[in-house]
Amino acid sequence: MRRGTGINWLAVYAVAYMVFLYAPAILLPIFAVNDSTIIAFPLRGFTGKWFADLWSSEALQASALNSLYVAVSTCIVSTLLGVCAARAATRYPFPGKKGIMGFIMLPLVLPEIIVAVALLVVLVQLGLDLSLWTVVLGHVLVCTPFSIAVLSSAFQGMDRSLEEASLDLGETRFNTFRRVTLPLVMPGIISSLLITFTISLDEFIIAFFLTGTDATLPVYIWSQLRFPAKLPSVMALGTILLLVTIVLLILAEWFRRRSTARRGEDISIAGGLA
Amino acid sequence: MSDIPTAADARTIIDARNVTKHYGDVKALDGISAEIREGEFFSLLGPSGCGKTTLLRMIAGFDELTSGTIAINGEPMAGVPANLRPTNMVFQSYAIFPHLTVAENVAYGLRRKKLPKEELQREVEAALEMVDLGGYGPRASHAMSGGQRQRVALARALIMRPKVLLLDEPLSALDKKLREQMQVELRRLQRAVGITFILVTHDQEEALIMSDRIAVMFDGRISQLATPQELYRLPANRRVASFIGVMNFLDGTVIGEDGDAVHLDIAALGKVSVPKSQCKSRIDGTAPAHVGIRPEMLTILFDETEQAEREVTGTISDVVYYGDMTYYDVQLPGAEKPITISMRNTAGRAVLEIGATARVGWGSESIVVLD
Lengths: 274, 371
Prior knowledge:
Chain A is mainly alpha-helical. Helices cover about 75% and strands about 0% of the residues of chain A.
């Protein structure tokens, strides 16, 4: 028995790994409240002025609004598409289903820079002007697979006979969707909205390539990095983004778990096939 | 309780003609024709994959027919969607809406009728009372036990006052005790409401206990459609005979026939004449025949005073004790396999041991000749 003696190397590795992952993120809030324009230790003292700076920057506010606009549009569109695709994939057999679903999920693994460049070329060839809408288009492309992944598990977990029971009790297909399907997959839909919103909010490469004159928040941050004096403000902005992202993802996970818990009830009593 | 309509005066409520269903190359249903009568408890009985659930789902309107017709209450159902059919279903998984309360589940189908609130509540409570769930209305449906969900599903379907109630293996998820209790209760409920029930089951005992008539299905066809008694006493063929209860099979030869009787020579039992009404197979001249006899139609004669129409002597090769019954396997001279005999354990009757010699009594009226 080696227990209790020697060093637990697995625990050491785990801790080292966590430090490597999260230490840089922790530096963000630290320097966001450090009273110095130089990002270096030792710290100089506490200040809130970098956050105050943010508040007074019009360019920043404009880009924040742009990001909000893009993220909201993206999360709604990709979740709508996700609902349709997930339902089709889990309910109906159709020829080439595996291939088609694989194709839709592809942007998950494609390098974003490739997607961004390809989209830019296509849009320019089509003669379309770059705007926030072209950014939304690009974001929908990369967000829809996430949406489908989240919603597929919500639809899959739903006992198919629930919809049949509703039809059987005299409801139309539309009302069945409204009264049974929608309430049961709602946690999945909310989870999908939150995840795609977060992805779109943070996304830089596609936004950088496809945005016209209106910068989104990540593009604005990048543009500010050229001015060393603005660095602490960027740190402050990053801190806010970090917090928003964490809160949104926790919410999304909470909703996703709620939907799995709900459907667990029904799977447990379903018997085998007749 | 209303009387059960007798076979002669009942109307046909479901008329299935030549129903076939193909899934690609697989024939799930291969020319099913059956008339189900108003007010009867009808069972579709068969092993997994025999097509019984497919037929039920077609009656409900969930699956399309490949060919053939189904008429409910005289109206052809082709193109009529499930929500417009006068049938309601109790699903195998019960399909209780988990996001609604018990009362909301039961009231689900009544929404379209736009009843005043008070009347709706009265109806829901009455339906819950009917299945012994009075007062359970406000409970969350996912907090109910399996047996209770089953009752909620029943109430939710019966409140619609369907012409036909379809039950898809409704008892298969319940434990034995609860299942036996529900079998009796379902039967009682069916007599009380007088609605035609169609039950899909793979449990032959369940079908025998509950049904007025049973259709035994194999490989997408109906092998026999009969009352439980007829099915048990005179199965149409060996497959039905071995699916319903236990049946001993013996080889025999037809050695002649005259008038109403067929003369047979049966391995281990000897020569015997049986009435033609007990022959389910076509008799032509002298030919090999398959003879069946039920375990309870054979008796072990325990002492000299006990007599039977015919007697043979064999050796006990296995004993299974069930408490109320004992099942003996007896090897008879000249028989390929031992035959099974069931004996009731009445007061003072001993349980014989393996290896003991036993006198086996039987009678010609208990013999059936099968395909």
